[in-house]
Amino acid sequence: MNTYGKFFENGQLISTSITYGASQSLTFSNSTVEQVDLHVQVKTVAQVNIGSATKSIIKRPPNPSQPNGGLVLICSSNELPIEVATQPLFKAQPNDYPNNYDACFFHCGYIWDVSSPLTILMRPDTAETYFTSLGYDHPGVGHRIFITTLSPINNGNLGTITVKARYPDCAAQLPITQSTATLWGGTPTILNATVNGTSANSMNYNVQSPAHLVVSSGSATSYSWYTAGGSGTLNSQGSECYVSFSSFVRVIAESANRCGTGHSHTFYLFAPGYQMYRIAPNPADKSVQVSFTDSEIPKFLLKEVSLYNKNGKLISEFDIEKATISGFFNQNKTIELNTSELPKGTYFVKVTVGDKSETHQILKE
Predict the structure, then answer these.
(1) Residue 112 pLDDT class (50, 70, 90 cuts)
(2) Where are any strands of DSSP class E within 211-301?
(3) What pLDDT, in 10s, does the model give residues 34-49?
């Protein structure tokens, strides 16, 4: 089956195509025409006419640019009212942009909408006078507004602001186009984090090096990356970072905007086969020790080190909170459990680090 497609602009044939199948793409020419009539005829290989159809296709007009680049920051109520703007798309003169001249693909105005409790203040647009003086017929009236509120500005997401483009009467049939921006109060918050393309956990095991770390925030304009434990080399750019390491590394990503430094995210990365700690001696006599490979692990991740008998009864437990407050882990990465008074037999040491809990059997001689 052959499909013959004929494309017309203002009643004039501009192209003909023959395809074998049912799909055909249409590219508008560099002209002032907003509408194309597509006439399709379907014939067999023997040129027997099966059917035909005609459809008018309207070229989609351009969206207004995102207000303030997609993010409107309000650091405090003292900044209100604050200006918000979209890049105006004016009707061009013949010597400027021939593709727009005498066409309806310019914005003759804008309609704004903002999330409550923020409100819009309309102000005279000085750009209207300026562009009219240059000979532009339809400056984009209202491409700049101001927003304000009587309510306190809380830190976090304040909603969205939307700008819709208005078109002249000759383009009344065109769809309304719009763009949105996030309204944010104060310093940023990191919303998501990934390690090598998957969601980051509190602890990330069996991570191949170099690891690809990514954080995302709808309100940050810059990020800082640094190591804060273990050993690794960073190569960062914006919200992404590649870290090369051999065993264990602790990486911190900090977010910031013009309001200040905001939320941070900490990555704990463990290479395949990495052993966080070892328990010795076993069999034990007077004590048993839990020795961590890196001091950062007990300092930030350790949740429990306990000793149980074979019946599951708790014998002793290391006081992690007291050790942290006293700065014990600043100088030590080994925890000792006293077994000198215990009778001979089988016991179990439970160690919980982050979201990983393990129980190890030991013998007391």
Answers:
(1) confident
(2) 211-216, 222-230, 233-237, 240-244, 248-257, 260-270, 277-280, 287-292
(3) 455 555 666 666 666 6
Exposure letters 89-101 (e unless 16+ CB within 10 A, then b): bbbbeeeeeeebe
Other CB atoms within a 10 A radius of the CB of residue 341 amount to 7
Rounded distance between C-alpha atoms, residue 58 and residue 28, angstroms = 10
Distance between CA atoms of residues 217 and 283, nearest Å: 51
180, 86 contact by CB (below 8 A): no
Spatial separation of the C-alpha atoms in residues 310 and 308, rounded to whole Å: 7
pTM of the model: 0.72
| 84-109 residue pLDDT tens | 988 877 654 444 444 443 445 567 67
At 44, the amino acid letter reads T
In Å, the largest CA–CA distance within the chain is 102
* Amino acid identity at 24: Q
Residue 182: what residue type? T
- Residue 164 has what pLDDT? 86
Question: Which residue do the tokens 């009539």 mark?
Answer: 37
- Looking at residue 159, its amino acid is G
